[in-house]
Amino acid sequence: MYAFEIDRPATLADAITALGAEEAQALGGGQTLIPALKQRLAAPARLVALSGVAEIKGIRTGADGALCIGGGTTHAEVAAGAGAYPALAALAARIGDPAVRNRGTIGGSLANNDPSACYPAAVLASGATVVTTNREIAADDFFEGMFTTTLEDGEIITEVRFPVPEKANYQKFEQPASRFALVGVFVAKYADGVRVAVTGASEDGVFRWSEAEAALSKDFAPGALEGLSLSGEGMISDLHGSGDYRAHLVAVMTRRAVAAAG
Amino acid sequence: MPKDGGIGAATPRREDVRFLTGTGNYTDDINLRGQAYVYFLRSDVAHGRLNKVDTSAAEAMPGVLRVFTGEDFVEVGGIPCGWQVTDRFGQPMQEPRHPVLAHGKVRHVGDPIAAVVAETREQARDAAEAIELDIEELPAVVDMKAALVEGAPKVHDDLTSNLCYDWGFVEENKAAVDEAFQKAAHVTTLELVNNRLIANPMEPRVAVGDYNRATGDSTLYTTSQNPHVIRLLMGAFVLGIPEHKLRVVAPDVGGGFGSKIYHYAEEAFCTFAARALNRPVKWTSSRSEAFMSDAHGRDHVTKIELALDAENNFTALRTETYANMGAYLSTFAPSIPTWLHGTLMAGNYKTPLIYVNVKAVFTNTVPVDAYRGAGRPEATYQLERVIDKAARELGVDPIALRRQNFITEFPYATPVAVEYDTGDYHATMDKLEEIADLKGFAARRKESEAKGKLRGLGVNCYIEACGIAPSNLVGQLGARAGLYESATVRVNATGGITVMTGSHSHGQGHETSFAQVVADMIGIGADQVEIVHGDTANTPMGMGTYGSRSLAVGGSAMVRATEKIISKAKKIAAHLMEAAEGDIELKDGKFSVAGTDKSVAWGDVTLAAYVPHNYPLADLEPGLEETAFYDPSNFTYPSGAYACEVEVDPETGRVTIERFAAADDFGNIVNPMIVSGQVHGGIGQGIGQALLEGCAYDENGQLLTGSFMDYAMPRASDVPFFTVDHSCATPCTHNPLGVKGCGEAGAIGSPPAVVNAVVDALRSAGKDITHIDMPLTPARVWAAMQG
Is B500 within 8 Å of B510 (Cβ atoms)? Predict the structure, then answer.
């Protein structure tokens, strides 16, 4: 780890000011950034820890019935407190291990947009809204590829608003070593249609499987997916599975998610 | 029933109190006054010429005491190899120099180039980044067969090729074996890979070097399984320090699994630098460094052929193996694919003719050496896989085929130079069939199929040679060390006993089980016996712990020393009771005169030994302390039968272990709870090898599995509850305890059971699959199912 300065603001206003400093970087739960610092793979001059900002923590129900989760809310808090959206609570309960879940935050995970992270699938499949210090961003506009989002420098995720679906389920097939998603599929059924988001598989990060969405919107049953498949082209291919294998798993996990959603 | 704390009692492990409460004393807990820290700058290329290592900027960085490079070690010996193998043609193996710090060339990712010693760890690391390197990258050799092609890049320019040796065993049998294959009614052939593993003990390696300028004494604190071996290798061959001026301490060690047997460059460096700087120097490996500097294990590529006659009797076995040595020869590396592998190829079977060929190859990868089982898992895996395949080809039951070919008479001299003293392979197989409930398998398969899963059953046997080893024999085979063990039993004045053993406990529970043995022999409580190990300053010269040898060899030394104690104590007791020595009996810690009611307590005798007022001083020295060295006359041969049941998800290829049963013959058992724990751990590692673990390099020699993000270790949820049994005991005939050793069995016996089970599961779905290489990851199993 290289030496760095650290700010610990207690309010969002102070956090925004602190992030205005040169080479300042936000620190959420630190589950990605701290290991990178220890490996000397990142060398920010100044960290701004968001863990003391109470305004961006907690879970509430919005006026429109959406489940609103503060950007600084930990995975463990979501697992315990998102009962209104059981599939989301279950997803949070299976991220990493207890240490990760008690430090890692939803805002940190989304800002990092790891191509194998679980939350991006939930946000995209739910058509959630990412609220930041500057604006409100629709999920379809938020993710821009592996480790890339539409967030600008100094912009902090304050809240994520999830419309609660009629039915939903997340199926994660774990990479054997890291237990990140080798392929994760989140299926959410709303009154106006079904959304299917896939994490872990594509070289472009989380994506929606539109063919499956169309089929499931007509008939929300595993059988509706029969004959649908994705190409291995453009899928991640590594030690843990080829692109073809990942493409195959997307179909399997989607079918299972639909079956489990009931 | 055994008496509490005696031989056979499931006494809880006394060492767990400190391990589980954070009060252990590991090497990283040792911090000496004035201690400096070293950071090793390691190569990030697999093969390259070191044109320049400019340390001037680094030397000027804050806190830096000195920067060392390969130039500083030119006059110092290289890291030695402890075993010389002679090849098929009677020539010694090619043995390259292994410098403490790379000189001239770097030969694997992780090869240390420079060492920065500074006041703090961070300062050392900062300065290492200021070292200017000019490395001319050379083409790397990673694949063993490619490394042997004419004109392949050479790992060591001064060797004739990348071939370390081409070993044939038994070379004189080769023609007869070939002839038997020509006459065979059936030949089964299998090509397989025994995957490269990284041991990953919970505690990474640590070394603290210290030097006392006033006395000229050097001390090394290190994470070792055998401190005396390190003292000898480092003192005599690397740094030129005589043993009486060098102390090596291996305090609490958090797991070794073989990877902490060897003498490593970092140990020599810390000892050397402490003297050069007159400061203690400490190195603590990061986990990332461990992946690229701890010796790896396994990494064999094998073709095995089994010949059978028309009645399905095994008539001959022939193997050709390529064994990866990595870039340098680690301490015992050459012996693993040869004497610890070839000699086990008979397994549990009376195959009359066997020929084993092994080509050991240098590549631009981390050195490979023993890992739990060491050669024996490789032998067992190929043999038990090929037998399973033969059974399928012949349409016979794999268990029946094994039983038909079992060795049934003992002692049995194999055609590969070892003599099994005892065993009863039908008994362990009978026991396995019972505890694994093999009769219920068909019903369980139906239940799995109803859930859409494929269920498979894999059964296999294993034999191992452990309790290594007769020194004169291993000397003939090329060992540059003896393999005896030692113990000093020091009886204190008030009767308590301190045992100094040359064995080393790093998870095996010796402090509990060794105490049980001595306590049992004398008839006192085990709490009266303390086991001391791990410090060359207070234990007799010992060879340490590996190869499941501690109780069989170290325990035997302790028994011999205790027998001497009892013999002398009886003389003292005879004097105290004015009786003839031959009439003295020792029972339950009390000496009595046969046929009388006269007795003296253990404590009375020990006190008399040290306060010799009423004592036969003319005939007997005072004191009660004895040392024994025990050199075994043979290996010991634990054996067993294992069964694994798996479920395979046909849609994803994911394998789950549903049931696992092990019936082992370890001879006599001192502490059955510790034995079960050893078997559990071994099976866990075997399942890890079979399903999860696989060290991978890319074609340029970059380590692809350099962290736990990509190298999959088994977790608790990856293993089932195990059913283990060690009641089928045929005691070892040649050591005083009748014990065989249990530390490696689980890791040896389990991989073939898992793979046999997965192949069985896939075939139950009509897939014509005969083999999948380990680790059987979901992706590999799925790919195999796609044909």
Answer: no
Q: Is A245–B777 a contact, with Cβ atoms under 8 angstroms apart?
A: no
CA within 13 Å, CB half, B604: 16
| Other beta carbons less than 10 A from residue B419's beta carbon | 12
Residue of A nearest to B709 (CA): A178
Q: Which residue of A has its CA nearest to B712?
A: A177
The closest alpha carbon to A151, from A134, A126, A166, belongs to A134
Where do the DSSP E strands lie in chain A? Answer: 5-7, 24-27, 46-49, 59-61, 67-70, 129-132, 136-138, 157-162, 167-174, 181-190, 193-199, 207-208
Q: What is the mean pLDDT of chain A?
A: 97
Q: Which amino acid is at B741?
A: G
Residue carrying the six token digits 């079918």: A255
Residue B638 to residue B740: CA distance in whole angstroms: 6
- Report the pLDDT value the prediction gives residue A262, as an integer from 0 to 100: 86
CA distance B438 to B663: 13
Task: Answer whether B696's CB lies under 8 Å from B723's CB.
Answer: no
Work out the minimum CA distance from A94 to partner chain B, whole angstroms: 14
Domains and CATH numbers, chain A: 5-162 (3.30.465.10), 167-261 (3.30.390.50)
Single out the residue of A230, A232, A222 nearest to residue A254, CA to CA.
A222
Residue B677 predicted with pLDDT over 90 = yes
Report the alpha-carbon angle B727-B728-B734, nearest 5: 110
Residue B2 scores a pLDDT above 70: no
Considering only CB atoms, A242 lies closest to which of B696, B709, B779, namely: B779
pTM (predicted TM-score)? 0.97
Structural element, H or E, at residue B51: strand B48-54
Q: Taking the C-alpha atoms of B5, B258, B756 and B180 in order, what is their torsion angle to the nearest 10 degrees?
A: -110
Q: How far B288 CA lies from chain A's nearest CA (Å)?
A: 9
* pLDDT one-digit tens code per residue, B714-737: 999 999 999 999 999 999 999 999
Residue holding tokens 């073939």?
Answer: B752
Distance CA B587, CA B581 (A): 15
B696–A177 C-beta distance less than 8 A = no
| Average pLDDT of the segment spanning B597-616 | 97
B281, B117 Cβ separation under 8 angstroms: yes
Q: Name which of B691, B774, B777 to mutate to probe chain A: the one with the most chain A Cβ atoms within 10 A of its Cβ.
A: B777
Residue B293: is its pLDDT beyond 60?
yes
Cα–Cα distance, A57 to A204 (Å, whole number): 30
Tokens of B183: 């006459």
What is the amino acid identity at position A202?
S
- The pLDDT tens digits of the residues spanning A173-215 come to 999 999 999 999 999 999 999 999 999 999 999 999 999 999 9
CA trace torsion B575, B578, B579, B585 (10° rounding): -60
Closest of A1, A75, A67, A82 to residue A34, by C-alpha: A1
What strands, in cross-sheet order, belong to the sheet with B590-593? B584-587, B590-593, B599-601
Chain B residue with minimum CA distance to A1: B122
Q: A191 at the B interface (CB within 8 A)?
A: no
**Residue B592 near residue B604 (C-beta atoms within 8 A):** no
The 10s digit of each residue's pLDDT in A127-155 is 999 999 999 999 999 999 999 999 999 99
For B586-599, give one letter per residue: b (16+ CB within 10 A) or e.
beebbbbbeeeebe
Kindly report the CA angle at A100 between A98 and A102, in degrees rounded to 5? 65
Chain B interface residues facing chain A, Cβ-Cβ under 8 Å?
122, 125, 288, 651-652, 654, 691-692, 696, 704-705, 708-713, 777-779, 782-783
Give the pLDDT of residue B1.
40
Cβ separation A176–B692 shorter than 8 A: yes
